[in-house]
Amino acid sequence: MNHPRATVTLPNDTQIQITRTFDAPPELVFKAWTTPEYVRRWWGSAEAPLVVCDIDLSVGGSWRYVSRDASGTELGWHGTCLELDPPLRMVSTEVFEGFPDAEAVNTLVLSADGDRTLMTVTVQHSSRENRDGHLNSGMEAGMQVVLERLDDVLEGLKIVSAP
């Protein structure tokens, strides 16, 4: 399957913006983005799958993901949901546990475009140094892979939810 690529832009010195279109309605994209059963299928990588995927989908609720590679190395991320307007918007904090002082705020916006969805994620960092560290971590290459995997999950959800 030919997957579209996400576009990464830098609106200012402390932000990363990611846009991508999915061939599914916002309701399905939001469901796949926020349901542990589905997140486990697309987030992370084949080499370091998620071994923890906890999501309390409520304002003030927390989330945490932990991936583990074949050597046993674990990487963790966590945050708190600040705003929630399903299926169109969610704002949450994100902390990569390897850099606990570099908390970011992620704003997910899903916009319907016919049967498709335009996803925009704005990552607000507290400093240019934190933003650049995020960019230089290999984030973009990994993100392209996981969003392709999300496409595959969405294809399965579309089949299940078809009338």
UniProtKB/TrEMBL annotation:
InterPro entries: ASHA1/2-like_C (IPR013538), START-like_dom_sf (IPR023393). It comes from the Bacteria. Pfam families: AHSA1. Residues 23-155 form the Activator of Hsp90 ATPase homologue 1/2-like C-terminal domain. CDD domains: SRPBCC_CalC_Aha1-like_9 (cd07826). Transmembrane segments: none annotated. Belongs to the AHA1 family. This is Uncharacterized protein YndB with AHSA1/START domain.
